[in-house]
Protein: Histidinol dehydrogenase
Amino acid sequence: MQRLSTSDADFAERFAAIVDDRRESDAGVSDKVAQILADVRQRGDAAVRELTETYDRHRLDWRIPASECEAAFAALAPEARDALTLAADRIRSYHAAQLPEDRDYRDEAGVRLGARWSAVDAAGLYVPGGNAAYPSSLLMNAIPAKVAGVERLVVATPTPDGVVNPLVLAAAHLCGVDEVWRIGGAQAVAALAYGTETIARVDVITGPGNAWVAEAKRQLYGVVGIDMVAGPSEILVIADGQSNPAWIAADLLSQAEHDPSSQSILITDDAAFANTVEAEVEALLGQLATGERARLSWQDYGVVIVASDLLAEAPALANRLAAEHVEISTDDPEPIFAALRHAGSVFLGRHTPEAIGDYVAGPNHVLPTGRRARFASGLSVLDFMKRTSFISLTEAALGAIGPAAVTLADIEGLPAHGTSVKVRL
Amino acid sequence: MQRLSTSDADFAERFAAIVDDRRESDAGVSDKVAQILADVRQRGDAAVRELTETYDRHRLDWRIPASECEAAFAALAPEARDALTLAADRIRSYHAAQLPEDRDYRDEAGVRLGARWSAVDAAGLYVPGGNAAYPSSLLMNAIPAKVAGVERLVVATPTPDGVVNPLVLAAAHLCGVDEVWRIGGAQAVAALAYGTETIARVDVITGPGNAWVAEAKRQLYGVVGIDMVAGPSEILVIADGQSNPAWIAADLLSQAEHDPSSQSILITDDAAFANTVEAEVEALLGQLATGERARLSWQDYGVVIVASDLLAEAPALANRLAAEHVEISTDDPEPIFAALRHAGSVFLGRHTPEAIGDYVAGPNHVLPTGRRARFASGLSVLDFMKRTSFISLTEAALGAIGPAAVTLADIEGLPAHGTSVKVRL
Structure:
């Protein structure tokens, strides 16, 4: 953990280093992933079968039947079933309100113009196996796709040694996933993108994964649609000295416990409060089952910044960081929120811990990381839809705007363009 | 040109081959582009200077002053100035109506939820030099960025041997572009993405370019936002036998004249009409200054399909092709349009040639190619904006939905997540 003060002589330099620090690596898998993609594209099922035997050590049928997912849901403890259902309902409701409106109008020149949105035909969701298999992540990917109107929703998830994660199957049932396949890694992403004899190809692939999965998606960008390249999780907490230090410590560690390369940053205007939070972090680290992972993250990437004035300084720093999650723990978070330009999701006020957004608030928890909130947004129904624009001219409307098109075709040296308008005038 | 009939015994097979045919190649520049990106990232201006001397053969100052753009606009023929201005006004008006609305509401559980859209800080537009420098393309990229609210809009355009294209400068002036730099190729894209001593980095890069530029953008996806990977242009014309064959021939060639790897496809239900269109294409090819390019495209990639029933067959074929441009030349295009699911932009009725959309209709002419309309949309203001979701809970609202979050954190094995909620309950 490093501690800075905005009044330090070297603050600008140290802060810039934090902003520029990349906690991502492609782990050198780029060439190997390219080979797997080419292999699956060419040999289909045979390639996927061999890679699954090698990496996941099983020769089971890939398809997990819907009945197994239904049974997994029925077998959940009632409390878990209710919590997942509440989360699904709230996520569905938030995303339904995101559905874009079509446009169809006639302008002053008599030209009919518009745009029509439609869902992609098929979407594939990658769900990691083992430790990182989170049912909440399946909900956050599957529900926007279903709300968008995707007819065929496919999950690919590895089952190392054939062992399934019943929570993932239960969540797939709850979300109405149409197909679940027990395959993983770059080979699963390739099978979804190119299709094989057994698995029909999809149009969009989303969902988290390890370095192989992330690199496979990156390489397939353009062959299919993908969600944003995702890096380690981040939280920036902007807290005044009246905040409860134990609450803030838990918030910081709720990101740190994801991964040793996660990042938690506190900006406060109260140096004594910063000290107390640091002590609370230490205390909580000792109690957490995830303490080892969280300690590495806090040690290597944790940052505490003491500012002289929160409202004057925190928004500018936050905009440079463009963090995935920003918490504002003050009595009136609005002035700081109004000055924030770049953030994935913002958590306003003392009773809004970030974790509430991971599970049950409703907005998506798939958010831009690694300073990408400068230009990227969280996952939404739009990631599973596309827009078709349309134009309709009467003879009179063509007469009004056609001559200008002929002039422009002419200066651009495209005579067939010009001719196609001229012959109709 | 190949001709098919939906009643041919081998139609399904031949049509599938057309759908799968990829007219794109990275021209083997992937490794060289990676080297250029790394070089510019490390050495900044020095690398850009050397590459510009090598490829563009000039050592001029990179910055083209605003006064030069203004002068280029003033020097336009009045007809060209009026046509560009009409186009800009119509494009601006269509895109202004695309601006997304923010959301801010409180739901039944008392939870305040919302989403706030904002523009990226800076956008870079690549504008090709030489033959492929189209002022209309600058308009189609710059205007959505300005409408979105981008404060700093930067153009990079190569000037081989130092020669500028005055039409590009004039269009830059008309659109209010803030900086114009005479650099090109992968080195220009790298300079925009990483920044150099002279050029500040941007957040989003859009615009067409050669294989080097396209590959540079692909490799920088995630470092910055980019528009969709673009391939050769395409048009699908669905026309009944009452259409004017000379009009349809001009429409087909208006895409063919872009590039030898462009693709023009006609679907009609009238074999005699198809013959006449083919003859008109031949006649027009002989007259066009771009005839050589257009002939190669028509020869290698042109397709004429005779269907037995347009309404019954054309939409399904069109959805497989997912073409960039789809023209429907019938008296009542609505039934076919209603059945179209995948298309970049649709041109309805006999008086709506595709070229009208390239210039003055208003919708964007940057559209998904290579079957990508299955999952991608044309350029819009959204490509220059991002959405920040937000959540605000009162103590009571946290009491209502917090326990479910604790349950889910528990089953996912993330105790700090659970703690951050529990301590507040």
User: Anything to note?
Assistant: Chain B is about 45% helix and 15% strand.
